[in-house]
Amino acid sequence: MKVLMVDVDGVLVHGRPGDGLHYCTYLERDLGLKREVLQEEFFRKDHWGDVVTGRDNLEPRLTSVLERIAPGLSASTLIDYWFENDSRLDQALLGDLAALRAKGIPMYLATNQEHRRAAYLMEKLDLSSYFDGIFYSAMLGYQKPAPEFFRLATERVGIEAHEIAFIDDYPANIEAARQFGWKAMHWTPTATLNDALAAFSQ
To answer: For residues 73 and 66, is the Cβ–Cβ distance under 8 A?
Structure first.
């Protein structure tokens, strides 16, 4: 292993800062929008697919949806609410990753994100202090588990696929990474970085 790639949501980030609940848990109470409606009208239709692969920007596309489903709610208000309530960091894992990086292992985030949240993760949550960079779907034009995601990330990091290790909580992403040649481990709530390192050495 010459480089470690780390997923974000479900690995490093786990919901609301105070309690770890999904960021939409109190969405209707706080902003008057039902979680199911947002999921169906934005995330489960073509809108999110275009945004998360960089074909469109988040705010204008979300604005067009909110004009129909929640006309009194601005996209900027919802985006701020989402980002702030989906930002609980796994500090124990970050500490373990920092110790490994201090030994000379470069680390990158490998994640499905649109441009604004990718910047939020690196700047506002300060993940740029822990990682050498980020490869994300809106940057690459493909989202995991598409093989093109892994190909482009490999090309940009500049080493052979078999020299890259990867942790992710989504089985399809793990399978796709392995098919491309990365060493990959399925991350679970009870997993540790030592578990991953042991799996990578097999």
So the answer is: yes
Angle at 17 between CA 16 and CA 19, to 5 degrees: 70
What domains appear along the chain, each with residue ranges and CATH number? 3-15+88-200 (3.40.50.1000), 27-84 (no CATH)
Are 139 and 114 in contact by the 8 Å Cβ rule? The answer is no
Say if pTM beats, i.e. exceeds, 0.85: yes
* β-bridge partners, 107: 4
**Which two three-digit tokens encode residue 21?**
């609940």
CB 156 within 8 A of CB 149: no
Q: What is the pLDDT along the chain (202 residues), one digit of tens a residue?
A: 999 999 999 999 999 999 999 999 999 999 999 999 999 999 998 899 999 999 999 999 999 999 999 999 999 999 999 999 999 999 999 999 999 999 999 999 999 999 999 999 999 999 999 999 999 999 999 999 999 999 999 999 999 999 999 999 999 999 999 999 999 999 999 999 999 999 998 7
Per the structure block, which two tokens stand in for 52?
Answer: 């998360």
